[in-house]
Each structure stands twice: as structure tokens, then as C-alpha cells.
Design goal:
There is one protein chain. The chain contains 14 helices and 20 strands. By secondary structure, it is of the alpha+beta class. The strands form 6 sheets. It has a 5-stranded antiparallel beta sheet with strand order 13-19-11-10-20. The chain has a 4-stranded antiparallel beta sheet with strand order 9-14-17-18, with no helix packed on it. Strand 7 and strand 8 form a beta hairpin. Helix 3 crosses helix 4, helix 5 crosses helix 9 and helix 10 packs across helix 11. The radius of gyration is 24 Å and the shape is globular. The two termini are 47 Å apart. The C terminus is likely disordered.
Length: 427
């Protein structure tokens, strides 16, 4: 709320066009709804556009096998990225502060993160959900005390999240138990010391990245002659490109000897050659399916299943200029551009797709690689094409640029889906 008021004051001078985006995690019932009402009312008083979204985060965590915190983060940032794309926004401004950095350092330290993770958040960085959008954190060097003092002095209304006191979440245990212990028993200036260390790690990490990019811009003459730190980075980068989590033990095994094969999953093994190039061997690759189903969208609505995906659709006439409310598992398209007949099928070699916000199309295979989608999962993803074969939707990815809603859209297509395990059926 402090960030919102500061930005609203500065906006006229800098000619910023602000949109206030609020995501309701639906974790605290009426209290969550009260949070949303406060933000909505504040945006109205400041005469700012307000965008809201929400999702059942507990359900998303359960279905995705994630912690509540991770599921909430994914749902929230997915909403932010979608709103930014729809509205042509290139900056998402967040209110992380210095204490958030300190807590993040210890959270990542306890999880075994390397220098990249321990370097923490940056004031300006690409969104991990969409590289075309930048995340800005202007309060990152401000303390919680400074922010609360500003709120008190300026009469900024805010609400306290009661879940921040719960010991259920690791971040809260770090905040309320570990950090007070370290300050009282070991280092009173803990925040200052940790933030200084993170700044050092960040600068060193930036240097390592620049060296890595320089090295990988041409074939390596000799892998074994590289410093150990660069050997690890070279292998880590290649594992990530293959959609494989860069576990430290795997990297060390690969680094130890050329040709040494390690298994990273039930059907995937990797090894490196003498030049450090990572080679992947897949013994049980999931076969591509040529199955497809043709679907008529001429009626008002319909539903069905295909290849374990349950879906439903509705055609809605545009009434007013308001954009549809975001919901997890639902996308909106220009129905006339999609057409009256579509095809559902699996990804095929040579498929090209133009995600929203991109100026040109690219190979869907390259998009999967960039997003670190495992190979075995790629062939299971369902794609939707027009009758002419243009892809307008890919399961789990962004919508097609050519099929997004426009000011000239007359009929909207609401497309909702959920991954299930059932036989193919269409209604």
C-alpha cells in the first residue's frame, strides 16, 4: 500500500499510466476478500484502473504437488503476467523490501542454493514467467521499519495478513525464530551483513554469467582446462536447456569424467564429451500421438475430453469494454478469429506458434526448450488449431497473439480446461 501511494504521487511528473493489480489467493476467507476491497477502494480514490484475479491456491497446490507458498507465487505471477500482456504493460512493480531479501537468503541457504540463488532479488530483472516483462522492486533497499514509519506519517491504510504469524510456513519460522536468534546471540547487525554479502555474490554472479556467455558463443577447445566454477556453470546451463533440474550431484558426476553416463530420470541418461557438450540418451521416449479430434464451435457452448484433458467452451457477445476477469485454467479469445471449427491434437514436429506479445512465430519445440518443458511432457501437451492449421492455444502456455481479444472483438470465446485421465469424448 505504501508503494501504491508513492507511485501514485510520482506518476503525474513521470507520465506513468498505472494499473493496480490484486490477486486474491482465497486462503483466508472473508479476510482475503476484505484485502481485495481495501485495494479496490484505494485504487478508486486514487482514480487508477483496478484489475483483480483469484484462484483456489490450496487446490492448485494439492493438484500440482506444490507447497502453498509456491502455488500462491505461481498463480499470482501468472495473473500478473497475463494482465500485463493483455494491457500492453512492460513493467510489474513489486514491494519487496530489505527484510524480504534477508529472509530469502536464509531460505535459499537452507535449500542448498548456489551463488545464483544466494544473490537474491534484483531491483530490475526479467520476469521468470515472461522475459518480455520486467519486474521492478524500488523498495528493495528500504527496511520494514522505514516503510511502516512512512505509512504512519502519511496515513496510509493497510491490512496485516494473519497468516504471516503462522509457524506452518518456513519463511515465517525463519522470520520469527531463526533471525531473532541470530541477531540476539551472534550478530546484532545481521541484516547489514547479509545484504552486503548478497551484493558481493550478485556482482560475482553477473561476472560469471558474462564469462559463461562468452565461452558458449564458440566451441570449447578443452573442457577440463576450464576453472571448476565455469565447468559447473557450463553443465548447469545445458541441463536447464534440456529441461533437467541441475542437481549438484549430477553436475559433479558429469564434470568428473567425459563419457560417464548418469541417469536423471527413468528413461533419460546424460553424459558429456571431452569438449563439455552434453549428450542426452532417451531409452523410453513417449511416442508421439497422431490422434486428433475436430470440434465445431457453432453452438453457444460445449464440452468434452481428449487425451486426458477435460475442457469446455462458451461463446459470449461483447457487452461493454471491460476485460474478462482472470481465472486459473481459463483463457479468452476472439471467437471470430478462432473460427467455427477447430482441431485438438498433440504437438507435432515443425509446429510453429506465436505467443501473445511476440512479433513473430517460432518453433513450438524451441519454445518448450526455452521454458524447460521436459521432452516426455511435450508430446503429451494438447494444442488447438484453426481449421486452416494455425495454433491458437497450447496447453499450459500463453495464448496466440493473433487470436487475443481486441477492441474490435465482437464475440469472445471462453476456453476452460483441466488435466484429467479419461477417454476421448466430445459434446
Amino acid at each position: 500500500m505504501v508503494l501504491l501511494h508513492v507511485l501514485a504521487r510520482m506518476a503525474p511528473k513521470h507520465r506513468w499510466q498505472l494499473v493496480v493489480a490484486h490477486f486474491n489467493h482465497q486462503l483466508r476467507g472473508r479476510s482475503s476478500d476484505a484485502d481485495e476491497r481495501l485495494v479496490r477502494e484505494t485504487a478508486r480514490k486514487l482514480r487508477l484502473t483496478f484489475a483483480s484475479g483469484g484462484a483456489d491456491v490450496k487446490r492448485a497446490a494439492r493438484e500440482g504437488g506444490l507447497s502453498i507458498e509456491m502455488a500462491a507465487r505461481r498463480c499470482r505471477h501468472d495473473f500478473f503476467s497475463r494482465e500485463a500482456k493483455v494491457r500492453g504493460i512492460r513493467r510489474i512493480v513489486l514491494a519487496h523490501h530489505a527484510e524480504d531479501q534477508v529472509e530469502l537468503f536464509f531460505l535459499r541457504l537452507l535449500r542448498g542454493a548456489g551463488p545464483q540463488g544466494l544473490a537474491g532479488m534484483k531491483v530490475l530483472a526479467p520476469s521468470p514467467w515472461d522475459n518480455a516483462v520486467k519486474l521492478v522492486r524500488p523498495l528493495l533497499e528500504c527496511s520494514r521499519d522505514e516503510i511502516e514509519a512512512f505509512a504512519s506519517a502519511e496515513g496510509v491504510r493497510f491490512r496485516n495478513d494473519a497468516s504471516n504469524a503462522s509457524s506452518e510456513f518456513l519463511r515465517n519460522r525463519v522470520r520469527h525464530e531463526l533471525l531473532p536468534l541470530l541477531r540476539s546471540q551472534f550478530q546484532p547487525a545481521l541484516s547489514k551483513v547479509v545484504l552486503r554479502q548478497m551484493e558481493i555474490l550478485s556482482a560475482e554472479n553477473d561476472f560469471m554469467d558474462s564469462e559463461l556467455n562468452r565461452l558458449l558463443s564458440k566451441p570449447l577447445a578443452s573442457f577440463d582446462a576450464l576453472p571448476v566454477a565455469l565447468q559447473r556453470r557450463v553443465l548447469q546451463k545445458q541441463l536447464e536447456r534440456e529441461g533437467v533440474a541441475p542437481e549438484f550431484e549430477w553436475i559433479e558426476s558429469l564434470r568428473s569424467a567425459a563419457g560417464k553416463v548418469i541417469s536423471v530420470s527413468g528413461d533419460v541418461s546424460v553424459f558429456r564429451d571431452e569438449f563439455g557438450r552434453l549428450l542426452v540418451r532417451r531409452s523410453g521416449t513417449v511416442p508421439r500421438s497422431e490422434a486428433e479430434v475436430r470440434l465445431s464451435l457453432s453452438r453457444k457452448s460445449g464440452q468434452g475430453t481428449f487425451a486426458g484433458l477435460s475442457w469446455n467452451w462458451t461463446r459470449l457477445l461483447v457487452k461493454g469494454g471491460r476485460l474478462p476477469k482472470f481465472a486459473t485454467g481459463t483463457e479468452w479469445f476472439d471467437a471470430d478469429r478462432v473460427g467455427r471449427e477447430v482441431v485438438l491434437r498433440h504437438w507435432r514436429a515443425g509446429d510453429r506458434f506465436q505467443p501473445i506479445g511476440m512479433a513473430t512465430s517460432q518453433k513450438l519445440q524451441d519454445l518448450f526448450t526455452n521454458l524447460k518443458v521436459p521432452r516426455a511432457e511435450r508430446v503429451q501437451r494438447v494444442v488447438a488449431t484453426t481449421a486452416a492449421g494455425e495454433i491458437w492455444w497450447v496447453e499450459g502456455l500463453r495464448i496466440g497473439e493473433l487470436f487475443k481479444l481486441h477492441s474490435s472483438t465482437r464475440t469472445r470465446l471462453r476456453w476452460s480446461w483441466q488435466r484429467r485421465h479419461s477417454n476421448c469424448g466430445v459434446q
